[in-house]
Amino acid sequence: MNEQTPKQIVEELDKYIVGQKAAKRSVAIALRNRWRSRQLDSESMKDDIIPKNILMIGSTGVGKTEIARRLAKMVKAPFIKVEATKFTEVGYVGRDVESIIRDLAETSVRMVRSSRLEEVQEKAAEMAEERILDVMVPQPKKSVVNPFGQLFGSSNDEEAEGNSDEEPKQYQAGREWCRKKLLAGEYEDKMIEIDIEDNNKPMVGMFAGSSLEGMGDNIQDIIGSMMPKKHKKRKVTVEAARKLFQQEEAMKLVDMEEVTEEAVKVAETSGIVFLDEIDKVASSGGHGSNHDVARDGVQRDILPIVEGSTVMTKYGPVKTDHILFIAAGAFHTSKPSDLIPELQGRFPIRVELTSLDKEDFKRILTEPQNALIKQYKALMGTEGIDLEFTDEAIDCLAKLACDVNNQNENIGARRLHTILEKLLENLSFDAPDLEEKHVVVDEAYVKEALSEIVVNQDVSQFIL
Q: Where are the transmembrane segments (predicted)?
């Protein structure tokens, strides 16, 4: 369970997301409250205090998804992002809302399994080395002794007795000699034939995207457990064999029953679900059309999961009472009050994210740890190019992004991706062949590269 204070959580989010203080504070408090509830002595009180779900309102590209994603990564919690528009009312073609919890359980199992596998890597590496030695120095076959030798005066017993000490000594000496070579890295490129498990599943995705998706997973697992383990021979290098053997041995050392038990508990107490495009399933004005009825149906299906229910997954039942739900939407054509009242009540914390201005764009380009300009400098650095942006160029790019957003569809910070990609298109193409490795992007460079877009607004709405 995360023990960071709300202030520390906000500071960590500030490293990646510019602005949006109100949204950061809300998620930080929600996360801390979850930790606080776990510290209570009274079990009944623990069960009664449920997470306060959050509704984020803001146009695309202002940081809604990024806040939720970074939050989950920070606290190492199972996290899934789903679009509300992918789901349909039960009985119609489309995904069943319960698949949200099945996906969350799957994510949780992957996380716990990955953690357990890391813990046994050292032991698995030793076992993998022994398996490689078994391939390179096969154990000698035991001599066959004639059981009637004594009756017929055969010398098989004496021969077998004479070799019984010599063969193991030679085998062990050869194995140790080979081990030294192996540890010295002399055999890494040597080709060997190995025998490994064939993990191909009998069926893949037969029911994907339908309401029978969960049943399909269960059938696949049942058939997989009934079928005998298949093995296949592969010719690989010793280096590749070590990785394959280590993976196999690590899986043998991990108790999957314990993993699934813990994963279900982690999903129930720490899971975070990000419901994007929630505004798309809100009825716009409640005109009573078929479209509005279908949207209400999706909301009513989502409601039990958000308010707390038990969903059956292939890992067992998962209770949704203490899962944190963060819903988000632009709400351009609808309002939060257009959601059905029961669902509105399940998102008590409302946060409005502000639109980004020129100063925000400048900060997004330069400040975060994963800032776009830092990314492009690193990419060009792989070609030996030293890319430099002047302050005037950054100012010009921020202004252009702001202008294009105002004149066309406002897609927030995502506009910077399209502008920078267009700006550096020629450089990216010519980078491997350039003799001049120091490239300065100044205001003149920006205006020249984007001149057609700046002048011709009709073209810019298609390009950017």
A: none
**What are phi and psi for residue 83, nearest 5 degrees?**
-95, 125
Is 5 marked as a binding-site residue?
no
Q: Residue ranges of the alpha helices (H) in 64-155? A: 64-75, 99-119, 121-136, 149-152
Q: Give residue for tokens 């369970």.
A: 1
64 a known binding residue?
Answer: yes
Residue 311 labelled as part of a binding site: no
- Residue 254 labeled ligand binder: no
Q: Tell which CATH classification among 3.30.365.10, 1.20.58.1120, 3.40.50.300, 3.90.1010.10 matches the domain 6-115+263-352.
A: 3.40.50.300
Site of tokens 């919690």:
77
pLDDT tens column, 20-42: 888 888 888 888 888 888 888 88
342 is in an annotated binding site: yes
Span 233-269, pLDDT tens digits:
778 888 888 888 888 888 888 888 999 999 999 999 8
**Would you tell me how many other CB atoms lie within 10 Å of the CB of residue 35?**
15
Consult the annotation and say whether 63 binds a ligand.
yes
Q: What is the DSSP secondary structure assignment for residue 168, as one 8-state letter? A: H
Is residue 61 annotated as involved in ligand binding?
A: yes
What residue ranges do the domains of the chain occupy? 6-115+263-352, 121-141+156-253, 358-453
**How many other β-carbons are positioned within 10 Å of the β-carbon of residue 275?**
27
Is 65 labelled a binding residue? yes
Structure tokens belonging to residue 48: 């009664």
